[in-house]
Amino acid sequence: MTDVQVTCINKVPRENKHEGITHLGNSTGKWTRSQVIQWIEDGTNTFYTMVGGKRANVLVVNGPNGKYVRTHADGTYNDNLLALTEC
Questions:
Q1: Which of 22, 47, 48, 49 is at 20 to 30 A from 75, Cα to Cα?
Q2: In angstroms, what is the C-alpha Rg of the chain?
Q3: What is the mean pLDDT of the chain?
Q4: What's the CA gap between 66 and 63, in Å, rounded?
Q5: Span 21-43, pLDDT tens digits
Q6: Any bridge partners for residue 77, and if so which?
Q7: Closest CA to 7 of 21, 24, 22
Q8: What is the 3-state secondary structure (H, E, C) of the chain?
Q9: Number of domains the chain contains
Q10: Lowest-confidence region among 1-5, 10-14, 47-51
Q11: Is residue 67 within 8 Å of 37, Cβ to Cβ?
Q12: Structural domain of residue 44, as residue ranges?
């Protein structure tokens, strides 16, 4: 299992009602949200962000419109992913 730091994302265009993440990446590559969800669920890879020196794990959440990814740190879900720069 590889532990992968996510440093950038791509989102659906702003005119969309919700800011949905389409891709996650770092300096070595970029992956679709569905790939990342599959790898997390399969236990192939783990993903995390590092914001302000704090690690936040990327987890899969079942929402009303399907699965999506969100960070979780210190017992709280947060929007660290949406705060990352565009890939």
A1: 22
A2: 12
A3: 87
A4: 5
A5: 999 999 999 999 999 999 999 99
A6: 72
A7: 24
A8: CEEEECCEEEECCCCCCCCCEEEEEECCEEEEHHHHHHHHHHCCEEEEEEECCEEEEEEEEEECCEEEEEEEECCEEECCCCCCEEC
A9: 1
A10: 10-14
A11: yes
A12: 2-86
Cα dihedral 18, 75, 2, 83 sign: positive
| Spatial CA neighbour of 72 closest among 63, 60, 83 | 60
Q: Provide long-range contacts, Cβ within 8 A and 24+ apart, for 29-33.
A: 30/87, 33/68, 33/69
Q: Strand 29-32's sheet: what is its strand order?
A: 29-32, 21-26, 8-11, 85-86
